[in-house]
Amino acid sequence: MRAVGLFWLSLRIGAMNALQYRADFFIQLAQSTIGLGTALAGVAIVFGQTDELGGWRRDELVALIGVFVMVGGLVGVVIRPSMERLMEGVRLGTLDFTLTKPVDAQLLVSVRQVDIWRLMDVALGAAILVFAIAQLGGRVGLAAAAAFAVMLLAGLAIVYSFLLVLATLAFWLVRIENILVIFASMYEAGRWPVGIYPAWLRVALTLLVPVAFAVTIPVESLIGRLEPTTLAGTILLAACFLVVSRWFWRLGLSRYTGASA
Amino acid sequence: MAIDDRSPAILVRELRKTYAVPEREPGLRAALGSLVRRRTRQVEAVAGISFHVSPGEIVGFLGPNGAGKTTTLKVLSGLLHPTAGEVRSLGHVPWQRDPAFLRRMTLIMGQRNQLAWDIPVIDSFELNRAIFGVPRDEYRQRLTELTDLLELGELMRKPVRNLSLGERMKCEFAGSLLHRPEVLFLDEPTIGLDVTMQRRIRAFIAEYNSRTGATTLLTSHYMADVEALCRRVVVIHHGTLLYDGDLTGLVARFSPHKSITIDLEDGGEGLGERIPALVGPPEWIVSHAEGRLTLRVPRSETARLTTRLLANLPVRDVIVDEPPIDEIIDLVFAGRAGPAEVPPA
Protein backbone atom coordinates (compact mmCIF):
# COMPACT_ATOMS: atom_id res chain seq x y z
CA MET A 1 0.00 0.00 0.00
CA ARG A 2 2.81 2.30 1.00
CA ALA A 3 4.66 1.17 -2.14
CA VAL A 4 1.72 2.09 -4.36
CA GLY A 5 1.40 5.49 -2.69
CA LEU A 6 5.09 6.25 -3.12
CA PHE A 7 5.09 4.99 -6.69
CA TRP A 8 2.14 7.23 -7.45
CA LEU A 9 4.01 10.23 -5.98
CA SER A 10 7.11 9.44 -8.01
CA LEU A 11 4.93 9.10 -11.06
CA ARG A 12 3.45 12.55 -10.43
CA ILE A 13 6.87 14.11 -9.86
CA GLY A 14 8.23 12.26 -12.88
CA ALA A 15 5.35 13.54 -14.97
CA MET A 16 5.90 17.11 -13.78
CA ASN A 17 9.59 16.82 -14.59
CA ALA A 18 9.03 15.17 -17.92
CA LEU A 19 6.31 17.51 -19.14
CA GLN A 20 8.80 20.37 -19.09
CA TYR A 21 10.76 18.70 -21.84
CA ARG A 22 8.28 17.86 -24.58
CA ALA A 23 10.86 16.76 -27.13
CA ASP A 24 11.40 13.57 -25.11
CA PHE A 25 7.81 12.60 -25.78
CA PHE A 26 8.30 12.55 -29.53
CA ILE A 27 11.65 10.80 -29.25
CA GLN A 28 10.13 8.09 -27.11
CA LEU A 29 7.12 7.82 -29.43
CA ALA A 30 9.44 7.23 -32.38
CA GLN A 31 11.55 4.78 -30.40
CA SER A 32 8.58 2.76 -29.18
CA THR A 33 6.98 2.59 -32.62
CA ILE A 34 10.21 1.54 -34.28
CA GLY A 35 10.89 -1.07 -31.58
CA LEU A 36 7.45 -2.57 -31.89
CA GLY A 37 7.49 -2.38 -35.70
CA THR A 38 10.80 -4.24 -35.92
CA ALA A 39 9.61 -6.94 -33.55
CA LEU A 40 6.38 -7.48 -35.47
CA ALA A 41 8.20 -7.37 -38.81
CA GLY A 42 10.49 -10.13 -37.53
CA VAL A 43 7.46 -12.28 -36.76
CA ALA A 44 5.93 -11.50 -40.16
CA ILE A 45 9.12 -12.52 -41.99
CA VAL A 46 9.47 -15.79 -40.09
CA PHE A 47 5.87 -16.77 -40.63
CA GLY A 48 6.15 -15.89 -44.32
CA GLN A 49 8.42 -18.95 -44.51
CA THR A 50 6.87 -21.35 -42.03
CA ASP A 51 3.77 -21.97 -39.93
CA GLU A 52 5.61 -22.78 -36.76
CA LEU A 53 8.75 -21.73 -34.90
CA GLY A 54 9.99 -24.13 -32.23
CA GLY A 55 6.40 -25.15 -31.54
CA TRP A 56 5.08 -21.58 -31.46
CA ARG A 57 2.42 -20.37 -33.88
CA ARG A 58 2.06 -16.88 -35.21
CA ASP A 59 -0.54 -15.50 -32.82
CA GLU A 60 1.32 -16.94 -29.88
CA LEU A 61 4.46 -15.17 -30.98
CA VAL A 62 2.54 -11.93 -31.39
CA ALA A 63 1.37 -12.35 -27.79
CA LEU A 64 5.00 -12.89 -26.84
CA ILE A 65 6.02 -9.67 -28.57
CA GLY A 66 3.24 -7.87 -26.69
CA VAL A 67 4.51 -9.15 -23.36
CA PHE A 68 8.11 -8.45 -24.36
CA VAL A 69 7.31 -4.80 -25.11
CA MET A 70 5.07 -4.42 -22.08
CA VAL A 71 7.54 -5.89 -19.58
CA GLY A 72 10.36 -3.91 -21.18
CA GLY A 73 8.21 -0.83 -20.64
CA LEU A 74 7.44 -1.66 -17.02
CA VAL A 75 11.13 -2.16 -16.30
CA GLY A 76 11.91 1.06 -18.15
CA VAL A 77 9.24 3.12 -16.40
CA VAL A 78 10.44 2.66 -12.87
CA ILE A 79 12.87 -0.17 -12.13
CA ARG A 80 15.72 0.76 -14.41
CA PRO A 81 15.66 4.55 -13.84
CA SER A 82 15.42 4.01 -10.09
CA MET A 83 18.34 1.58 -10.10
CA GLU A 84 20.40 4.01 -12.16
CA ARG A 85 19.60 6.76 -9.69
CA LEU A 86 20.56 4.46 -6.83
CA MET A 87 23.97 3.75 -8.34
CA GLU A 88 24.52 7.44 -9.00
CA GLY A 89 23.45 8.15 -5.43
CA VAL A 90 26.04 5.74 -4.06
CA ARG A 91 28.77 7.24 -6.20
CA LEU A 92 27.93 10.90 -5.52
CA GLY A 93 26.65 10.48 -1.99
CA THR A 94 23.17 11.78 -2.84
CA LEU A 95 21.73 8.61 -1.35
CA ASP A 96 22.20 10.38 2.00
CA PHE A 97 18.87 12.14 1.86
CA THR A 98 17.01 9.03 0.77
CA LEU A 99 18.26 7.32 3.90
CA THR A 100 17.01 10.06 6.19
CA LYS A 101 13.41 9.39 5.17
CA PRO A 102 11.18 7.36 7.50
CA VAL A 103 10.30 4.87 4.79
CA ASP A 104 11.88 1.54 3.99
CA ALA A 105 14.98 2.55 2.05
CA GLN A 106 14.77 -0.35 -0.42
CA LEU A 107 11.21 0.60 -1.26
CA LEU A 108 12.10 4.25 -1.65
CA VAL A 109 15.11 3.70 -3.92
CA SER A 110 13.09 1.27 -6.00
CA VAL A 111 10.37 3.75 -6.96
CA ARG A 112 12.31 6.99 -6.72
CA GLN A 113 12.80 7.74 -10.38
CA VAL A 114 10.14 7.40 -13.05
CA ASP A 115 10.45 7.70 -16.81
CA ILE A 116 6.83 8.29 -17.75
CA TRP A 117 7.36 8.19 -21.50
CA ARG A 118 8.14 4.50 -21.24
CA LEU A 119 4.49 4.04 -20.27
CA MET A 120 4.00 4.23 -24.01
CA ASP A 121 5.68 0.85 -24.33
CA VAL A 122 3.46 -0.54 -21.61
CA ALA A 123 0.36 0.67 -23.44
CA LEU A 124 1.54 -0.50 -26.87
CA GLY A 125 2.61 -3.88 -25.52
CA ALA A 126 -0.70 -4.33 -23.74
CA ALA A 127 -2.60 -3.41 -26.91
CA ILE A 128 -0.66 -5.99 -28.95
CA LEU A 129 -1.26 -8.57 -26.24
CA VAL A 130 -5.01 -7.92 -26.22
CA PHE A 131 -5.05 -8.16 -30.00
CA ALA A 132 -3.16 -11.46 -29.90
CA ILE A 133 -5.49 -12.88 -27.26
CA ALA A 134 -8.45 -11.97 -29.47
CA GLN A 135 -6.80 -13.84 -32.34
CA LEU A 136 -6.16 -16.85 -30.13
CA GLY A 137 -9.89 -16.85 -29.50
CA GLY A 138 -11.36 -19.27 -26.98
CA ARG A 139 -7.99 -20.77 -26.11
CA VAL A 140 -7.38 -18.33 -23.27
CA GLY A 141 -9.58 -19.21 -20.34
CA LEU A 142 -9.96 -17.57 -16.98
CA ALA A 143 -7.51 -19.97 -15.34
CA ALA A 144 -4.91 -19.26 -18.00
CA ALA A 145 -5.39 -15.51 -17.59
CA ALA A 146 -4.96 -15.82 -13.82
CA ALA A 147 -1.85 -17.96 -14.25
CA PHE A 148 -0.53 -15.37 -16.68
CA ALA A 149 -1.05 -12.55 -14.21
CA VAL A 150 0.71 -14.49 -11.46
CA MET A 151 3.62 -15.44 -13.73
CA LEU A 152 3.94 -11.87 -14.96
CA LEU A 153 4.20 -10.62 -11.39
CA ALA A 154 6.69 -13.36 -10.51
CA GLY A 155 8.73 -12.55 -13.60
CA LEU A 156 8.79 -8.86 -12.71
CA ALA A 157 9.81 -9.70 -9.14
CA ILE A 158 12.68 -11.81 -10.47
CA VAL A 159 13.86 -9.12 -12.89
CA TYR A 160 13.55 -6.45 -10.20
CA SER A 161 15.58 -8.51 -7.72
CA PHE A 162 18.19 -9.24 -10.35
CA LEU A 163 18.59 -5.55 -11.19
CA LEU A 164 18.61 -4.60 -7.52
CA VAL A 165 21.49 -7.01 -6.91
CA LEU A 166 23.41 -5.56 -9.86
CA ALA A 167 22.81 -2.00 -8.68
CA THR A 168 23.69 -2.90 -5.09
CA LEU A 169 27.16 -3.92 -6.30
CA ALA A 170 27.78 -0.17 -6.50
CA PHE A 171 28.30 -0.16 -2.71
CA TRP A 172 31.48 -2.17 -3.28
CA LEU A 173 32.54 -1.18 -6.75
CA VAL A 174 31.35 2.43 -6.73
CA ARG A 175 31.57 3.08 -10.45
CA ILE A 176 29.67 0.53 -12.48
CA GLU A 177 27.26 2.58 -14.53
CA ASN A 178 27.28 0.14 -17.41
CA ILE A 179 26.35 -2.90 -15.41
CA LEU A 180 22.65 -2.55 -16.17
CA VAL A 181 23.46 -2.76 -19.87
CA ILE A 182 24.12 -6.46 -19.29
CA PHE A 183 20.44 -6.86 -18.64
CA ALA A 184 19.31 -4.54 -21.42
CA SER A 185 21.28 -6.40 -24.08
CA MET A 186 20.27 -9.84 -22.86
CA TYR A 187 16.66 -8.69 -22.65
CA GLU A 188 16.64 -8.14 -26.40
CA ALA A 189 16.90 -11.91 -26.78
CA GLY A 190 13.56 -12.16 -24.98
CA ARG A 191 11.64 -11.13 -28.09
CA TRP A 192 11.81 -14.78 -29.16
CA PRO A 193 10.79 -17.74 -27.02
CA VAL A 194 13.88 -18.94 -25.19
CA GLY A 195 13.08 -22.50 -26.34
CA ILE A 196 14.29 -21.76 -29.86
CA TYR A 197 17.81 -20.88 -28.72
CA PRO A 198 20.69 -23.38 -28.39
CA ALA A 199 20.98 -25.02 -25.00
CA TRP A 200 23.83 -22.88 -23.62
CA LEU A 201 22.03 -19.65 -24.44
CA ARG A 202 18.80 -21.02 -23.05
CA VAL A 203 20.52 -21.74 -19.77
CA ALA A 204 22.10 -18.29 -19.75
CA LEU A 205 18.76 -16.61 -20.41
CA THR A 206 17.12 -18.59 -17.65
CA LEU A 207 19.70 -18.74 -14.90
CA LEU A 208 22.30 -16.08 -15.60
CA VAL A 209 20.04 -13.27 -16.73
CA PRO A 210 16.44 -14.22 -15.97
CA VAL A 211 14.86 -13.05 -19.21
CA ALA A 212 12.94 -16.33 -19.66
CA PHE A 213 10.95 -15.69 -16.50
CA ALA A 214 9.99 -12.19 -17.57
CA VAL A 215 8.63 -12.98 -21.02
CA THR A 216 8.53 -16.60 -22.21
CA ILE A 217 7.11 -18.23 -19.11
CA PRO A 218 4.21 -15.78 -18.62
CA VAL A 219 3.21 -16.25 -22.27
CA GLU A 220 3.47 -20.02 -21.96
CA SER A 221 1.08 -19.86 -19.03
CA LEU A 222 -1.28 -17.73 -21.11
CA ILE A 223 -1.45 -20.25 -23.95
CA GLY A 224 -1.79 -23.14 -21.51
CA ARG A 225 1.57 -24.66 -22.24
CA LEU A 226 3.03 -24.35 -18.77
CA GLU A 227 3.44 -27.33 -16.46
CA PRO A 228 1.98 -26.75 -12.97
CA THR A 229 5.38 -27.66 -11.53
CA THR A 230 7.05 -24.87 -13.51
CA LEU A 231 4.38 -22.51 -12.27
CA ALA A 232 4.95 -23.45 -8.66
CA GLY A 233 8.72 -23.43 -9.17
CA THR A 234 8.62 -19.96 -10.64
CA ILE A 235 6.64 -18.61 -7.69
CA LEU A 236 9.12 -20.18 -5.30
CA LEU A 237 12.05 -18.82 -7.26
CA ALA A 238 10.55 -15.33 -7.26
CA ALA A 239 10.20 -15.49 -3.49
CA CYS A 240 13.82 -16.62 -3.16
CA PHE A 241 15.00 -13.82 -5.45
CA LEU A 242 13.14 -11.24 -3.37
CA VAL A 243 14.57 -12.53 -0.10
CA VAL A 244 18.13 -12.84 -1.35
CA SER A 245 18.14 -9.45 -3.06
CA ARG A 246 16.81 -7.81 0.09
CA TRP A 247 19.52 -9.47 2.16
CA PHE A 248 22.15 -8.35 -0.34
CA TRP A 249 20.78 -4.80 -0.37
CA ARG A 250 21.03 -4.61 3.41
CA LEU A 251 24.56 -5.91 3.29
CA GLY A 252 25.44 -3.26 0.71
CA LEU A 253 23.75 -0.52 2.68
CA SER A 254 25.82 -1.33 5.76
CA ARG A 255 28.88 -0.67 3.59
CA TYR A 256 27.63 2.71 2.45
CA THR A 257 30.13 5.42 3.20
CA GLY A 258 28.63 8.35 1.34
CA ALA A 259 30.75 10.77 -0.60
CA SER A 260 32.61 13.21 1.59
CA ALA A 261 30.94 16.60 1.74
CA MET B 1 17.16 27.61 30.33
CA ALA B 2 16.20 25.23 33.10
CA ILE B 3 18.57 22.51 34.17
CA ASP B 4 17.66 19.41 32.28
CA ASP B 5 17.52 16.12 34.08
CA ARG B 6 16.02 14.12 31.23
CA SER B 7 18.16 11.60 29.38
CA PRO B 8 20.39 13.12 26.70
CA ALA B 9 18.97 13.69 23.23
CA ILE B 10 22.26 12.65 21.70
CA LEU B 11 24.72 10.27 23.26
CA VAL B 12 28.07 9.33 21.74
CA ARG B 13 30.41 6.96 23.51
CA GLU B 14 33.81 5.93 22.14
CA LEU B 15 32.64 6.36 18.56
CA ARG B 16 35.01 5.09 15.89
CA LYS B 17 34.66 5.06 12.14
CA THR B 18 37.30 3.68 9.84
CA TYR B 19 37.17 3.92 6.06
CA ALA B 20 39.06 1.69 3.67
CA VAL B 21 40.55 4.03 1.09
CA PRO B 22 41.96 2.62 -2.15
CA GLU B 23 45.58 3.48 -2.57
CA ARG B 24 48.00 3.18 -5.45
CA GLU B 25 51.07 4.74 -6.93
CA PRO B 26 50.58 7.27 -9.74
CA GLY B 27 50.88 6.16 -13.36
CA LEU B 28 49.35 3.71 -15.79
CA ARG B 29 51.33 0.70 -14.65
CA ALA B 30 50.08 1.10 -11.11
CA ALA B 31 46.55 1.63 -12.43
CA LEU B 32 46.74 -1.66 -14.32
CA GLY B 33 48.20 -3.35 -11.28
CA SER B 34 45.34 -2.15 -9.13
CA LEU B 35 42.91 -3.98 -11.42
CA VAL B 36 44.38 -7.23 -10.21
CA ARG B 37 45.20 -6.40 -6.67
CA ARG B 38 43.63 -3.49 -4.89
CA ARG B 39 45.51 -2.11 -1.99
CA THR B 40 43.57 -0.20 0.59
CA ARG B 41 44.59 1.83 3.53
CA GLN B 42 42.55 2.17 6.69
CA VAL B 43 41.76 5.77 7.50
CA GLU B 44 40.39 6.50 10.91
CA ALA B 45 37.96 9.37 10.39
CA VAL B 46 36.67 9.25 13.95
CA ALA B 47 38.99 7.77 16.54
CA GLY B 48 36.98 7.34 19.68
CA ILE B 49 35.01 10.41 20.66
CA SER B 50 32.44 10.74 23.42
CA PHE B 51 29.96 13.49 24.24
CA HIS B 52 26.31 14.03 24.86
CA VAL B 53 23.78 16.73 24.14
CA SER B 54 20.80 17.53 26.33
CA PRO B 55 17.34 18.08 24.89
CA GLY B 56 16.92 21.61 23.58
CA GLU B 57 20.62 22.44 23.51
CA ILE B 58 22.33 24.03 20.51
CA VAL B 59 25.85 22.73 20.36
CA GLY B 60 28.54 23.89 17.97
CA PHE B 61 30.54 21.01 16.54
CA LEU B 62 33.86 22.41 15.44
CA GLY B 63 36.96 21.15 13.75
CA PRO B 64 39.04 21.77 10.65
CA ASN B 65 38.25 20.09 7.32
CA GLY B 66 38.66 16.35 7.61
CA ALA B 67 38.38 16.35 11.40
CA GLY B 68 35.51 13.86 11.33
CA LYS B 69 32.58 16.23 11.86
CA THR B 70 30.53 15.17 8.87
CA THR B 71 31.23 11.50 9.53
CA THR B 72 29.98 11.90 13.09
CA LEU B 73 26.85 13.72 11.94
CA LYS B 74 26.19 10.99 9.39
CA VAL B 75 26.51 8.30 12.03
CA LEU B 76 24.18 10.24 14.32
CA SER B 77 21.58 10.61 11.59
CA GLY B 78 21.73 6.93 10.67
CA LEU B 79 23.47 7.16 7.30
CA LEU B 80 26.64 5.37 8.31
CA HIS B 81 27.33 2.32 10.40
CA PRO B 82 30.13 3.06 12.84
CA THR B 83 33.13 0.78 13.20
CA ALA B 84 32.81 0.74 16.99
CA GLY B 85 31.21 2.61 19.83
CA GLU B 86 27.80 3.34 21.23
CA VAL B 87 25.52 5.98 19.78
CA ARG B 88 21.96 7.01 20.65
CA SER B 89 19.91 9.69 18.98
CA LEU B 90 16.64 10.31 20.81
CA GLY B 91 17.17 6.94 22.44
CA HIS B 92 17.43 5.10 19.11
CA VAL B 93 20.39 3.36 17.55
CA PRO B 94 20.52 5.60 14.48
CA TRP B 95 21.77 3.13 11.85
CA GLN B 96 18.88 0.79 12.55
CA ARG B 97 16.94 3.55 10.83
CA ASP B 98 13.77 3.04 12.79
CA PRO B 99 11.06 5.14 11.08
CA ALA B 100 10.01 6.35 14.54
CA PHE B 101 13.47 7.91 14.85
CA LEU B 102 13.74 9.23 11.31
CA ARG B 103 10.39 11.01 11.65
CA ARG B 104 11.81 12.99 14.57
CA MET B 105 15.08 14.19 13.11
CA THR B 106 16.42 16.05 10.12
CA LEU B 107 19.76 16.48 8.41
CA ILE B 108 20.55 19.65 6.49
CA MET B 109 23.77 19.93 4.55
CA GLY B 110 24.80 23.27 3.13
CA GLN B 111 26.72 21.67 0.31
CA ARG B 112 23.97 19.38 -0.87
CA ASN B 113 20.42 19.91 -1.82
CA GLN B 114 17.60 17.49 -1.47
CA LEU B 115 14.76 19.37 -3.12
CA ALA B 116 13.94 18.07 -6.58
CA TRP B 117 15.77 20.17 -9.12
CA ASP B 118 13.25 20.64 -11.89
CA ILE B 119 9.95 21.06 -10.12
CA PRO B 120 8.56 23.97 -8.09
CA VAL B 121 9.61 24.05 -4.45
CA ILE B 122 6.06 23.59 -3.22
CA ASP B 123 5.81 20.25 -5.05
CA SER B 124 8.96 19.02 -3.32
CA PHE B 125 7.41 20.06 -0.02
CA GLU B 126 4.32 18.08 -0.87
CA LEU B 127 6.51 15.04 -1.58
CA ASN B 128 8.14 15.38 1.85
CA ARG B 129 4.72 15.79 3.43
CA ALA B 130 3.63 12.48 1.96
CA ILE B 131 6.87 10.65 2.81
CA PHE B 132 6.78 11.83 6.40
CA GLY B 133 3.04 11.29 6.63
CA VAL B 134 2.28 14.77 7.97
CA PRO B 135 -1.50 15.32 8.26
CA ARG B 136 -2.70 17.97 5.83
CA ASP B 137 -3.97 20.53 8.33
CA GLU B 138 -0.74 20.35 10.34
CA TYR B 139 1.21 20.63 7.11
CA ARG B 140 -0.66 23.76 6.06
CA GLN B 141 -0.16 25.35 9.46
CA ARG B 142 3.59 24.60 9.55
CA LEU B 143 4.04 25.69 5.99
CA THR B 144 2.44 29.04 6.80
CA GLU B 145 4.67 29.42 9.84
CA LEU B 146 7.85 28.54 7.96
CA THR B 147 6.87 30.71 5.01
CA ASP B 148 6.50 33.69 7.35
CA LEU B 149 9.71 33.03 9.27
CA LEU B 150 11.81 32.49 6.17
CA GLU B 151 9.87 34.88 3.91
CA LEU B 152 9.51 32.29 1.19
CA GLY B 153 6.47 33.79 -0.54
CA GLU B 154 6.93 33.71 -4.28
CA LEU B 155 9.95 31.41 -4.11
CA MET B 156 7.76 28.39 -3.60
CA ARG B 157 6.32 28.53 -7.07
CA LYS B 158 9.71 28.53 -8.78
CA PRO B 159 11.65 25.43 -9.78
CA VAL B 160 14.68 24.90 -7.54
CA ARG B 161 17.11 25.34 -10.42
CA ASN B 162 15.98 28.98 -10.78
CA LEU B 163 16.73 29.92 -7.17
CA SER B 164 19.84 31.63 -5.86
CA LEU B 165 21.97 29.77 -3.34
CA GLY B 166 20.52 31.74 -0.44
CA GLU B 167 16.94 31.25 -1.60
CA ARG B 168 17.57 27.56 -2.09
CA MET B 169 18.97 27.22 1.41
CA LYS B 170 15.89 28.86 2.91
CA CYS B 171 13.73 26.40 1.00
CA GLU B 172 15.93 23.49 2.09
CA PHE B 173 15.35 24.53 5.68
CA ALA B 174 11.59 24.78 5.24
CA GLY B 175 11.40 21.44 3.42
CA SER B 176 13.47 19.70 6.08
CA LEU B 177 11.41 21.05 8.97
CA LEU B 178 7.88 20.37 7.73
CA HIS B 179 7.72 17.24 9.87
CA ARG B 180 8.79 19.31 12.88
CA PRO B 181 11.88 17.33 13.88
CA GLU B 182 13.09 17.29 17.48
CA VAL B 183 16.72 16.91 16.52
CA LEU B 184 18.50 18.95 13.85
CA PHE B 185 21.83 17.96 12.40
CA LEU B 186 23.12 20.98 10.52
CA ASP B 187 26.27 20.51 8.48
CA GLU B 188 27.59 23.92 7.47
CA PRO B 189 24.15 25.33 6.75
CA THR B 190 25.46 28.82 5.95
CA ILE B 191 28.33 27.89 3.68
CA GLY B 192 28.70 30.11 0.66
CA LEU B 193 25.95 32.51 1.71
CA ASP B 194 26.40 36.25 1.86
CA VAL B 195 26.60 37.92 5.25
CA THR B 196 22.97 39.06 5.26
CA MET B 197 21.66 35.64 4.35
CA GLN B 198 23.94 34.01 6.94
CA ARG B 199 22.42 36.25 9.55
CA ARG B 200 18.91 35.37 8.40
CA ILE B 201 19.56 31.65 8.58
CA ARG B 202 21.19 32.07 11.97
CA ALA B 203 18.23 34.00 13.35
CA PHE B 204 15.93 31.37 11.95
CA ILE B 205 17.79 28.52 13.66
CA ALA B 206 17.61 30.36 16.97
CA GLU B 207 13.91 31.05 16.48
CA TYR B 208 13.15 27.43 15.55
CA ASN B 209 15.04 26.26 18.61
CA SER B 210 13.19 28.57 20.97
CA ARG B 211 9.78 27.77 19.46
CA THR B 212 10.12 24.01 19.34
CA GLY B 213 12.89 23.25 21.82
CA ALA B 214 14.64 21.19 19.15
CA THR B 215 18.09 19.83 19.98
CA THR B 216 20.59 21.12 17.46
CA LEU B 217 24.08 20.00 16.53
CA LEU B 218 25.69 22.50 14.20
CA THR B 219 28.94 22.49 12.29
CA SER B 220 30.18 25.68 10.71
CA HIS B 221 33.40 27.31 9.67
CA TYR B 222 31.90 30.71 10.37
CA MET B 223 32.61 31.59 13.97
CA ALA B 224 29.85 34.19 13.82
CA ASP B 225 27.36 31.31 13.53
CA VAL B 226 28.83 29.61 16.54
CA GLU B 227 29.06 32.76 18.67
CA ALA B 228 25.49 33.71 17.88
CA LEU B 229 23.93 30.30 18.42
CA CYS B 230 26.00 28.03 20.61
CA ARG B 231 26.75 28.45 24.26
CA ARG B 232 28.54 25.13 24.20
CA VAL B 233 31.02 23.78 21.68
CA VAL B 234 32.55 20.39 21.00
CA VAL B 235 35.88 20.59 19.20
CA ILE B 236 37.39 17.62 17.40
CA HIS B 237 40.60 17.29 15.47
CA HIS B 238 42.04 14.24 13.70
CA GLY B 239 39.02 12.30 14.89
CA THR B 240 39.62 12.90 18.58
CA LEU B 241 37.94 15.20 21.05
CA LEU B 242 39.92 18.31 21.92
CA TYR B 243 37.40 20.23 23.94
CA ASP B 244 33.85 20.02 25.21
CA GLY B 245 32.39 22.92 27.18
CA ASP B 246 31.41 26.57 27.17
CA LEU B 247 32.55 28.72 24.31
CA THR B 248 34.11 31.11 26.83
CA GLY B 249 35.93 28.21 28.45
CA LEU B 250 37.38 27.26 25.09
CA VAL B 251 38.96 30.68 24.90
CA ALA B 252 40.43 30.41 28.37
CA ARG B 253 41.73 26.96 27.72
CA PHE B 254 43.23 27.32 24.32
CA SER B 255 44.35 30.88 24.12
CA PRO B 256 47.57 31.27 26.07
CA HIS B 257 47.34 35.05 25.74
CA LYS B 258 45.16 37.96 26.63
CA SER B 259 45.24 41.34 25.05
CA ILE B 260 45.64 44.52 27.12
CA THR B 261 44.81 47.87 25.60
CA ILE B 262 45.74 51.01 27.50
CA ASP B 263 44.88 54.61 26.67
CA LEU B 264 47.32 57.06 28.25
CA GLU B 265 46.61 60.60 29.52
CA ASP B 266 47.79 63.42 27.25
CA GLY B 267 48.66 60.99 24.51
CA GLY B 268 51.41 59.48 26.63
CA GLU B 269 53.82 62.39 26.08
CA GLY B 270 57.36 61.72 27.26
CA LEU B 271 56.73 58.12 28.25
CA GLY B 272 58.38 56.54 25.19
CA GLU B 273 61.46 55.47 27.09
CA ARG B 274 59.81 54.07 30.19
CA ILE B 275 57.22 51.79 28.62
CA PRO B 276 59.47 49.00 27.24
CA ALA B 277 61.22 48.83 30.60
CA LEU B 278 57.92 48.58 32.48
CA VAL B 279 56.41 45.93 30.21
CA GLY B 280 59.41 43.68 30.04
CA PRO B 281 59.75 41.25 27.09
CA PRO B 282 59.62 43.38 23.91
CA GLU B 283 57.52 40.75 22.03
CA TRP B 284 54.60 41.50 24.38
CA ILE B 285 54.18 44.92 22.80
CA VAL B 286 51.97 44.71 19.73
CA SER B 287 51.82 48.44 19.06
CA HIS B 288 52.37 51.76 20.75
CA ALA B 289 51.18 54.85 18.94
CA GLU B 290 49.26 58.06 19.63
CA GLY B 291 48.73 57.37 23.28
CA ARG B 292 47.42 53.85 22.83
CA LEU B 293 49.43 50.86 23.97
CA THR B 294 48.41 47.39 22.80
CA LEU B 295 49.93 44.34 24.46
CA ARG B 296 49.64 40.58 23.98
CA VAL B 297 50.54 38.94 27.25
CA PRO B 298 50.65 35.38 28.61
CA ARG B 299 47.47 34.68 30.54
CA SER B 300 49.34 34.07 33.80
CA GLU B 301 51.12 37.44 33.61
CA THR B 302 48.06 39.52 32.82
CA ALA B 303 47.04 40.52 36.33
CA ARG B 304 50.56 41.32 37.54
CA LEU B 305 51.44 43.38 34.51
CA THR B 306 48.13 45.28 34.53
CA THR B 307 48.68 46.22 38.17
CA ARG B 308 52.23 47.39 37.48
CA LEU B 309 51.18 49.49 34.51
CA LEU B 310 48.27 51.06 36.40
CA ALA B 311 50.59 51.99 39.24
CA ASN B 312 53.31 53.49 37.09
CA LEU B 313 51.60 55.05 34.09
CA PRO B 314 49.03 57.86 33.71
CA VAL B 315 46.29 55.50 32.55
CA ARG B 316 43.03 56.96 31.23
CA ASP B 317 41.41 53.68 30.28
CA VAL B 318 42.30 50.01 30.27
CA ILE B 319 40.73 47.04 28.51
CA VAL B 320 41.76 43.46 29.21
CA ASP B 321 40.24 41.21 26.61
CA GLU B 322 40.28 37.75 25.06
CA PRO B 323 41.60 37.49 21.53
CA PRO B 324 38.95 37.02 18.79
CA ILE B 325 37.44 33.54 18.73
CA ASP B 326 38.54 33.05 15.12
CA GLU B 327 42.13 33.45 16.19
CA ILE B 328 41.76 30.85 18.92
CA ILE B 329 40.08 28.33 16.69
CA ASP B 330 42.85 28.87 14.19
CA LEU B 331 45.41 28.15 16.92
CA VAL B 332 43.57 25.02 17.99
CA PHE B 333 43.26 23.71 14.45
CA ALA B 334 46.81 24.45 13.55
CA GLY B 335 47.86 22.33 16.51
CA ARG B 336 49.79 25.22 17.98
CA ALA B 337 47.80 25.13 21.13
CA GLY B 338 46.50 22.16 22.99
CA PRO B 339 45.38 21.16 26.44
CA ALA B 340 48.71 19.46 27.04
CA GLU B 341 50.66 22.62 26.44
CA VAL B 342 48.49 25.11 28.24
CA PRO B 343 47.08 24.27 31.64
CA PRO B 344 43.41 25.13 32.11
CA ALA B 345 42.94 28.62 33.46
In brief, what are we looking at here?
The complex is a heterodimer of chains A (261) and B (345). Chain A is 76% helix and 0% strand. Chain A is mainly alpha-helical and 261 residues long.
Task: Name the features.
heterodimer; A: 261 residues; mainly alpha; globular; B: 345 residues; alpha/beta; Rossmann fold; Alpha-Beta Plaits; 2 domains; 4-stranded antiparallel beta sheet; 12 helices; disordered C terminus
Structural features, described:
Chain A has one domain. Chain A is built from 13 helices and no strands. The two termini of chain A are 35 Å apart. The mean pLDDT of chain A is 88. Chain B has two domains: 215 residues, P-loop containing nucleotide triphosphate hydrolases (Rossmann fold, 3-Layer(aba) Sandwich); 66 residues, Alpha-Beta Plaits (2-Layer Sandwich). In chain B, helix 4 packs parallel to helix 6 and helix 5 runs antiparallel to helix 6. Chains A and B meet through helix 1 and helix 4 of A and helix 3, strand 5 and helix 4 of B.
Task: Set out the fold topology.
The complex is a heterodimer of chains A (261) and B (345).
Chain A: H1 2-18, H2 23-49, H3 58-92, H4 95-99, H5 105-111, H6 119-136, H7 142-168, H8 170-173, H9 179-188, H10 199-208, H11 211-214, H12 216-222, H13 228-254
Chain B: E1 10-23, H1 28-36, E2 39-53, E3 58-62, H2 69-76, E4 84-89, H3 99-102, E5 105-109, H4 121-132, H5 136-150, H6 165-177, E6 183-187, H7 195-212, E7 215-219, H8 223-229, E8 232-237, E9 240-246, H9 247-254, E10 257-264, H10 274-279, E11 285-289, E12 292-298, H11 302-312, E13 315-321, H12 325-333
Parallel strand pairs in B: 3-7, 3-8, 5-6, 6-7
Antiparallel strand pairs in B: 1-2, 1-4, 8-9, 10-12, 10-13, 11-12
Helix pairs in contact in B: 4-6, 5-6
